[in-house]
Amino acid sequence: MKILIDERGKKYIPPSKGDFQTDLGIIKKEKIERSLPGDELKTHLGKKFKVIEANVNDFIELMERRSSIILPKDIGIVISYTGLGSGQKVLDAGTGTGSVALTLANIVGDTGKVYTYEIREDFAKLAKKNIKDFGMKNIILKNKDIKKGIKEKNLDLIFFDLPRSWEIIEDAKNALKDGGWLVFYNPYIEPVKIIHKKAKECKFKEIKTIEVITREIEIKKKGTRPRTRMIGHTGYLTFTRKI
Amino acid sequence: MKILIDERGKKYIPPSKGDFQTDLGIIKKEKIERSLPGDELKTHLGKKFKVIEANVNDFIELMERRSSIILPKDIGIVISYTGLGSGQKVLDAGTGTGSVALTLANIVGDTGKVYTYEIREDFAKLAKKNIKDFGMKNIILKNKDIKKGIKEKNLDLIFFDLPRSWEIIEDAKNALKDGGWLVFYNPYIEPVKIIHKKAKECKFKEIKTIEVITREIEIKKKGTRPRTRMIGHTGYLTFTRKI
Amino acid sequence: MKILIDERGKKYIPPSKGDFQTDLGIIKKEKIERSLPGDELKTHLGKKFKVIEANVNDFIELMERRSSIILPKDIGIVISYTGLGSGQKVLDAGTGTGSVALTLANIVGDTGKVYTYEIREDFAKLAKKNIKDFGMKNIILKNKDIKKGIKEKNLDLIFFDLPRSWEIIEDAKNALKDGGWLVFYNPYIEPVKIIHKKAKECKFKEIKTIEVITREIEIKKKGTRPRTRMIGHTGYLTFTRKI
Amino acid sequence: MKILIDERGKKYIPPSKGDFQTDLGIIKKEKIERSLPGDELKTHLGKKFKVIEANVNDFIELMERRSSIILPKDIGIVISYTGLGSGQKVLDAGTGTGSVALTLANIVGDTGKVYTYEIREDFAKLAKKNIKDFGMKNIILKNKDIKKGIKEKNLDLIFFDLPRSWEIIEDAKNALKDGGWLVFYNPYIEPVKIIHKKAKECKFKEIKTIEVITREIEIKKKGTRPRTRMIGHTGYLTFTRKI
Fold it and tell me: Fewest C-beta atoms under 10 Å: which of B240, C64, C209, D241?
């Protein structure tokens, strides 16, 4: 998917129909279609736009989102702690606007598969559109209640961002391959305690809960320091492994 | 690659020659060879070992390492911030014992490629062995000084864990595709300041330095709290993008 | 100093002249004057106000401030790390609006003394008013450039929140008693490096730089978690001791 | 109280009887008695020791401790958040080895008072010795169970480091003056939740729980960075105010 970037760094998805119009001027549809990543296009006002092939983060940044999404800092740790890789089969619930499914799908690739469950019809519809727009073909979106049962088997990773997710912890275990990971995302600590208890009962191993904090460093002429404002907390990540 | 896990959770790579011998008893070579992931094997003393297919982290944990490695918390953020995915072409220098190359190779998969440069012969040799042992086929290891020049083109990601890495920032830019990322890892802040300066001179965009901190939460009968000891700092990650 | 607190927790300094007037109604001046801490007063509209004896923080919160102040989290660590106590003699520069001087003066008490230097006349004037309003009698405010020299001797603590404060590190050392502390506050890291160098040259001991981070925990019906927003950085505190 | 510091920075309390003997040589008792803070004494082997007047932290560092103590980072925030100052009356329970009582007593001074309760006889005995050794005269140590009742009135601050401390929250409120603070220290989060509930029922105001994290910055020739190891968590501080 091609996107355009103006000189201030703002990104745009060109419209599927008609010319590209912004306050910096107009670029003809044909001009965009003929362009290649790396090209620089000019509007009729002479303003420059760079063409790049969107990566999955560019798209998630630009796509329609009606709810808050799990931040890259959190999903990144899920990926690296579980050894996620190309060709793996994974499951994610609830889908929300699809950002986690897209990120996972980008990694498991064509030889892998992402199953994603969403109970709400409106979210499922939006996620479906987002997945289609980005052109991901390895995602199976299911607009159903995952608590009714998981059909998939031999999964490498299951990621739950769900209320009362521990209710299907046994189902999840059955759906995992040996050595596979079940990871829970919870904004509050109380559910984490229940998950630990249930995970031990289900004989999950390598149970561990972490919080990921990122600090941005400001490097300016005035001097160097961590930014004065930061995100204090998003959620707890609880890792459990079927061994 | 099959590994064995004892009841305390300790992992073992079975020897390439001869029977598997531990203080918990012996398991015959043939028994291990016939086993499938998920099987449980018993030693002659009746102790149980679980067989699992090692994922990349299991292997990195068990492989020979003669230097400290970049932690999953840091490499995870590199992956998620840059949108790394299946099929991408990436470069990493210096290789060290190969842990970053293995992690990246696991993600880019067979349709992708990892080029990894290591100047020291002893490290290159060890990394080569580690890569071969895990069976990764998409890594090109070069035992040469990356400062002499980068031949690769059209890369999605370059990751530098090198002294004075800014000296080849222009080379790195030429090796990247449009939209590609150059990421620097630095334990100290001083090089980060030089990198910001050089990156601006080279017209890199989306320049940002962050620190990743993970806090483990202890969930015990006595109560819940963050662990009393934690890792305070590993390194700064500086992201720069060719746009 | 008496202050009033309404039912929402908002605090007010009653005016020195005339009745107390808010959107919650009016309380007569005489009524306030006759009141004792702990009393509850009603406005003519029937709204309740609690009378309390302001502590130093209440006053700092309410007093006029034209610049940002050093946060309690930072000044608290200065106090506890240096063993500040009743009867000590301390120095602080620059005064700013007087908040640090007030906090220190509250601790050293009548048998102690706070010398505070401020180069800017407008700040010195404002600080003087604030000190007088709160009724602190153990503060000597000097509207002069501390870089011209420090007359005080035998001090227990010197606290510098100044640009290029290392320029008077020798002067500061001479002004300290043996065992006394010189503490520096710096938003950026670069001056901290110079201070370490100079402090070693001046044979200061127990040199240490720290950052203080406070995380507020939200305890609500929905659940418990660290707040989603937090202050990421204010300044570095560098401790050095004359031994 | 005079202490001695050797050239490596190690501190010593000279013995109450007999000469001062270390591996660096001997200093005669009389020589130490005649010395003044700032003097440098030599052992018979020619090694130098500096004499300084111990501040409260030096003493706490050197005194006998049989249990872990509350760190300066935490007690510092209690002091600054509550506006503790000279002349105030405060209460602390349990005493433990007396470190909190000593720190508070150092601040409230001769015109203030610290009441400290300890249920265990062995701790009370040790704390008594420590308080006497440092020469603090404004501490009333009670070897009794604070849960049986608090006699003191009109206190500025109560600090609880006790199991199930919420059981005496009403007693504590009665012991506080209007505007006074009750602060709780808890290693685990579960009691904090009960305290919030009880504090609201008792109509405490300005209820707030924080965690204090300090990061030390390493400034070396090799470069500048936060230390690689840090203390991850000690306890939660819960502030509640009687208004």
Answer: C64
The pLDDT of residue B11: 96
Beta carbons of A233 and C234 less than 8 Å apart: no
Residues in chain B: 243
| CATH architecture group of domain C59-241 | 3-Layer(aba) Sandwich (3.40)
> Would an 8 Å CB–CB cutoff place A221 in contact with chain C?
no
Q: What is the pLDDT of residues C17-56, one digit of tens each?
A: 999 999 999 999 999 999 999 999 999 999 999 999 999 9
Mean pLDDT of chain A: 96
* Residue of C98, C92, C93 whose CA lies nearest to C65: C98
Instruction: Name the CATH code of domain C2-54 (choices 3.40.50.2000, 3.30.420.40, 3.80.30.20, 3.10.330.20).
Output: 3.10.330.20
Q: If you average pLDDT over every residue of chain C, what do you get?
A: 96
Where along chain B do its domains lie? 2-54, 59-241
Q: What is the mean pLDDT of residues B37-64?
A: 94
Reduce the secondary structure of chain C to three states and give it as a string: CEEEECCCCCEECCCCCCCEEECCEEECHHHHHHCCCCCEEECCCCCEEEEEECCHHHHHHHCCCCCCCCCHHHHHHHHHHHCCCCCCEEEEECCCCCHHHHHHHHHHCCCCEEEEECCCHHHHHHHHHHHHHHCCCCEEEECCCHHHCCCCCCEEEEEECCCCHHHHHHHHHHHEEEEEEEEEEECCHHHHHHHHHHHHHCCCEEEEEEEEEEEEEEEECCEEEECCEEECCCCEEEEEECC
Q: What is the mean pLDDT of residues A151-164?
A: 97
Whether residue A226 lies within 8 A of chain C, CB to CB, comes out as: yes
Q: Do C212 and D212 touch, CB atoms closer than 8 A?
A: yes
Q: What is the mean pLDDT of residues D11-25?
A: 93
Bridge partners, residue B142, by sequence = B117
C66 pLDDT more than 90 = no
Test A215 with C225 for CB contact under 8 angstroms: no
Query: For residue D78, which of D170, D166, D184 has the smallest C-alpha distance?
Result: D184
Q: Nearest CA of chain B to the CA of A207: how many Å? A: 10
For residues D95 and D126, is the Cβ–Cβ distance under 8 A? no
**Common-topology check for domains A2-54 and A59-241:** no
Contact D79 C80 (CB under 8 A): yes
Does D108 contact C at CB distance below 8 Å? yes
Closest to A72 (Cα-Cα) out of A91, A58, A53? A58
- Interface subset of A 163-202, CB within 8 angstroms of B: 177-179, 189, 192-193, 196
pLDDT tens, position by position, A108-154 = 999 999 999 999 999 999 999 999 999 999 999 999 999 999 999 99
